[in-house]
Amino acid sequence: MVDWQRVRAVVFDVDGTLYGQRAMRLRMARELALRCLVRPTTLSEARILRTFRQVREELADAEASGIGRLQYDRAAERLRVPAARVEEVVEEWILQRPLRHVRACRNAGVRRLFSALRDGGRRIGVWSDYPAIAKLESMDLSADAVVAATDPEVDRMKPHPAGLSRVLEILTVQPAEALLVGDRDERDGEAARRLGCPYLLLAERPAQAREFAGYGDLLRGLAGGRD
Fold first, then answer.
1. Which string of b and e fits 188-215 if b means at least 16 CB within 10 Å?
2. Is residue 4 domain-resident?
């Protein structure tokens, strides 16, 4: 239950919340497979990406600091390749290439929800473990505060609540006056619980819906003041 009378700001996760990860993963897997057919050496890039993601999950579990460098250095050490090579592959396949697909994968109802929040005088924050500004621009969305785990003032991945705390500081709201919307209980939900912030986890629907159970409820709740 969301008591909209108390909510002054809504903070959104990005990957898996503002856009559908199933649709994105399918598109990126297709691109990677086609690249491998043309350039067999791309198989090494797939291995780099897999190892990089594993390292990120481990750093998140450990709530490590210094992640801006550790994410590349640890992956490079395991793969026995230069850290610069890991950075190059991550820049292309995780930070840049998805931007051409993210708007097509944007979940139905997101723009209407953002508009409804603004019409109701509520501020919007975005908190992601990855840089999010370019993704928001590609989805034709904007927020009042955008924070990433690798920002110097944060330097922690979820479930550490440093990023959420930073967003709320920028928005000048208390945790009890905000609502966090995410998709992973062990990351988003846990961070919200630690900070005492109300939260809502949205489950991705099957098939090609590219939509989340809960957006309709949020919009109806906004219209009525309480859901």
1. bbbbbeebebbbbbbebbeeeebbbebb
2. no
